[in-house]
Amino acid sequence: MSLYLEYVKEIETRAKELGLSPKPIDGADLTAEIIEQIKDTDNEHREDSLKFFIYNTLPGTTGAAGVKAAFLKEIILGESVVAEITPTFAFELLSHMKGGPSVEVLLDLALSDNAEVSAPAAEVLKTQVFLYEADTEQLEKAYKAGNAVAKDILESYANAEFFTKLPDIPETIDVVTYIAGEGDISTDLLSPATAAFSRSDREYHGQSMISPEAQAEITALREAHPGKKVMLIAEKGTMGVGSSRMSGVNNVALWAGEQASPYVPFVNFAPVVAGTNGISPIFLTTVGVTGGIGLDLNNWVKKVDADGNPVRDEDGDIILEQVYSVDTGTVLTINTKEKKLYNGDKELTDVSAAFTPQKVEFMKAGGSYAIVFGKKLQTFAAATLGIEAPQVYALSKEVSHEGQGLTAVEKIFNKNAVGVSSKSALHAGSDVRVKINIVGSQDTTGLMTSQELESMAATVISPIVDGAYQSGCHTASVWDSKAQANTPRLMEFMNKFGLVTARDPKGVYPPMTDVIHKVLNDITVDDWSIIIGGDSHTRMSKGVAFGADSGTVGLALATGEASMPIPESVKVTFKGDMKDYMDFRDVVHATQAQMLKQFGGDNVFQGRIIEVHIGTLLSDQAFTFTDWTAEMKAKASICISQDETLIESLEISKSRIQIMIDKGMEIETQMLHNLIALADKRIAEIKSGENPALAPDNNAKYYAEVEVDLDKINEPMIADPDVNNEDVSKRYTHDNINPVSFYEGKKKVDLGFVGSCMVHKGDIQIIAQMLRNIEEQEGKVEFKAPLVVAPPTYNIVDEMKAEGDWEILKKYSGFEFDDANPKSVARTQYENIMYLERPGCNLCMGNQEKAEKGDTVMATSTRLFQGRVVADSPEKKGESLLASTPVVVLSTILGRTPTIEEYKNAVKGIKLTDFAPPLKELSTEPSATSTISFLQ
Questions:
Q1: Which of 380, 531, 589, 928 is the most exposed place for a label (fewest CB within 10 A)?
Q2: What are the angstrom distances between the C-alpha of 762 and each of 265, 679, 800, 887, 910?
Q3: CATH top-level class for 426-566+673-683?
Q4: Taking each helix axis from N to C terminus, what angle separates 368-385 and 148-158, rounded to the nearest 10 degrees?
């Protein structure tokens, strides 16, 4: 059977079983067959082939794009004649293909001696921005050879006409509201983890957003209000918390946005989203990638008494009052010039933050990529012509306060800043381009990242990126047909692009399904680094790391840069002594609880950097804190460590990178060897005193300061989703944290999970030690609820096997993973045994393994969102309670939450955490090293 007939068969199956349109074409061979059928005027499939060729092939650097561009060139040159595709239309199609093969064709035509095609090709080229070195070198060479067309194109680029000739955004935008949910809206609602396998198939994945009923309601609103955009709202909450941002925004755009090109299916842009408390920072970045609008509504405020103090209800919760209604179906107007939101003539709120000059540029250009590439192209053209580039784009926002020291994040941004004109150090509020040192792509969003790279015509990783890794952790637990179809294809693409990959596309080294954040934490070998990763838990204990959407990850891989504002910081320090029966996870929970109490329920961490003065904790343990900051809604976290602690952490990183090399994971560019060399360089700098461990200046300015009192942490803490709270907006938040005594040893636990990025080797050792303790006290260990254990890395398993601890785990397990025979079906039911699962995300991801519906799960995970780890049953809501490893283990042995006495007995003699606050303040005197010398 021909590829075309196979495609037709797939179309029929797809329509019958899924109710979907034909899948967009990305393959060269199928496109070539379609072209042959177009050339054959008598072919029975010619009419459909024309439609597929024009409207259903993917642009950029896909195989289909290469073949399509070549055929369009034939038509333009008259070598092929297609009545339905004139040369003029062929140029139109090339203009929508975004780069790569299409730009190569346009350059060849524009720089040719054929005046008939040269002029129109040049005019199309002037609208393109996705040019790479090979393209610009060709232009530069032609210009220096005296080619007038090349000069004309370069002059257009120098004036950024690809941007200036675009229409401005409308002065007013009418929207009709749709309340997508009450309270914080997780991106899991917009792009469920259970549908992660389909994220690169945009139409298919779009069916998973919220619910079929919601999709029908949004469609009805669009039809009832032509000319108005549907604005999705998180009522009394924040929009877009959690991960899966790109697929979440893609889904919103699919249902409520605009088609980006008539010739590219299911790629939509310009969605409008809003929240009472605004938009999650990473989600807002993704909205910018698609040229969308994200509004902070402020439509509910705290009720205050006559003295201005918040009024609380009988449960002690602050009462909110509605300022104005955004009920579904309300028609509102965004005035982009005044930067106000209106209901008719009534002004509702200021939305200036949504319409900064930079964000308006994203909207005008149809997304942030075009701005990033446009700026680089303008700079190149001006330099080639030997002129100064005219000021077209909004100036980088450069904020500097004389006499004010720098926080840690301000120091890192100053060191990595690119294209800064200021001679003074930059402070929070500045908006700059920065060099990205480390980039991570994860497997359930990786295919989307590869699509983004293809769409921006990128073919190789930027040489200025120090380290980049493609994980396999989110699909580690079940090697099913979906994983078998997607993962090898992803690994092959990323390996070819220049990343170290978890799986070898050639099968030379065994699968390494280590959790991506753990690997990134190891390959970050400089505390002055900036890290970008395709997951909200990209939160390193060295450097500053930002979780990002697939597009921003792609941009960082392709350019080695990102544009972002320098965030404000909140300083977190500790006092007192940590009790020997407490786990560091309890310190993490207590930090959030004490912060909320200190600031009257306001989350001062939201959207800011948490600068945690961790001091004595090595990177693995400190990662527990930084990882949790995603749930604190912080933008990122920075660990301030002592010199000797940082050196030891870097030595550990070196050893783990060497293990990756020993396993055969090194790539042609010697990326892993180079990282070890960078680690050695950094260690030498610290030891010599040339550049000590990163620390803020002692006169740095913070948004707020939080001091955590360790003396007040007397018992284990549990983050509870509070699923039955009458106020829907207070369910499934990470702010409801209870001591274990709150449950009086009576809350039934159906399943326990120790795993995810929140645990390290010490946690798995704790399980082994607890089993020995209980065996000694009771004679044997019996589980009254299942316990799922998924170590985050293979190193942990290997080391525990060598040290003997794995034997006690095997003794009480009823299942142990086998890489030679991985599971092909996800587990849906559990026995009261311990399951030793393959390293990776497992239950925390919720896309393969899940608890039984309606279960109460006690987990070390990070996610307590509805339906993530456990779905609801008709009889009972699923609950995902988050706690430390010893609490989880004991809860499964008891089948319920433990009392404090039971807990203390179970952990007797176990050193849970070796942590004490730094003996001296970790800061530096302001000096020249914190100002201009870091600017590049």
A1: 928
A2: 49, 24, 10, 14, 11
A3: alpha beta
A4: 130
Decide if 23 contacts 9 (C-beta within 8 A): no
**Structure-derived torsion over alpha carbons of residues 510, 514, 518, 520, reported in degrees to the nearest 10:** 50
Q: Enter the DSSP assignment of 389.
A: P
Question: On the CB side of 787, how many CA atoms lie within 13 Å of its CA?
Answer: 32
Which pLDDT score is estimated for 919?
66
In whole angstroms, give the CA distance from residue 933 to residue 448.
38
Alpha carbons 129 and 164: distance in angstroms, whole number: 13
Sole residue written with tokens 């637990």? 477
Domain boundaries, the chain: 3-128, 172-355, 426-566+673-683, 718-907
Report d(CA 437, CA 524) in Å as an integer. Answer: 8
Could you report how far apart the first and last alpha carbons of the chain are, in Å?
Answer: 58
**What is the C-alpha to C-alpha distance for residues 94 and 65, in angstroms, rounded to an integer?**
9
The Cα–Cα gap between 575 and 591 comes to 12
Three-state DSSP state, 115? helix
Query: Strands of 609-615's sheet, edge to edge?
Result: 636-641, 609-615, 569-575, 704-709
Beta bridge partners of 818: none
| Within this chain, domains 426-566+673-683 and 718-907 share the same CATH topology | yes
The DSSP 8-state label assigned to residue 75 in this structure reads: H
pLDDT given for residue 930 in this prediction = 43
- Burial annotation 281-293 (CB, 10 A radius, 16+ → b, else e): bbbbbbbbbbbbb
- CATH node for 718-907: 3.30.499.10
Q: Collapse the DSSP code of 480 into the 3-class scheme (helix H, G, I; strand E, B; otherwise coil) and give the result.
A: coil
Residues 847, 112: Cα–Cα separation, whole Å: 52
CATH code of the domain occupying 172-355: 3.20.19.10
Phi-psi region at 300: left, alpha or beta (left = phi > 0; alpha = psi -120 to 50)? beta
* 352 in Cβ contact with 244 (< 8 Å): no
Compute the distance between CA of residue 785 and CA of residue 797 in angstroms, rounded to an integer: 23
Q: Is the pLDDT of residue 472 over 80?
A: yes
Q: What is the pLDDT of residues 96-124, one digit of tens each?
A: 998 899 999 999 999 999 999 999 999 99
Q: Confirm if 916 and 785 have CB atoms less than 8 A apart.
A: no
Distance CA 638, CA 479 (A): 36
Contact predicate 437/416, CB 8 Å: yes
pLDDT tens figures, 533-548: 988 788 899 999 998 8
Model confidence at 639, pLDDT cuts 50, 70, 90, reads very high
Strand pairing class (751-755; 856-859): parallel
Give the architecture (CATH level 2) of 3-128: Alpha Horseshoe (1.25)
Of the candidates 218, 359, 344, 224, the residue with the CA atom closest to the CA atom of residue 284: 359
Residue 935: the pLDDT is 37
Alpha-carbon span 352 to 258, nearest angstrom: 23
How far is C-alpha 165 from the chain's CA centre?
A: 32
How far is the C-alpha of 493 from the C-alpha of 468, rounded, in Å?
13
Question: Max CA-CA distance within the chain?
Answer: 91
Q: What pTM, to 2 d.p., does this model score?
A: 0.87
- The residues, any chain, with a CB within 8 Å of residue 564's CB and separated by 6 or more, are 285, 431, 432, 434, 546
Tell me phi and psi for residue 283, to 5 degrees. Answer: -65, -40
How far is residue 765's CA from residue 800's CA, in Å, rounded to a whole number?
Answer: 8
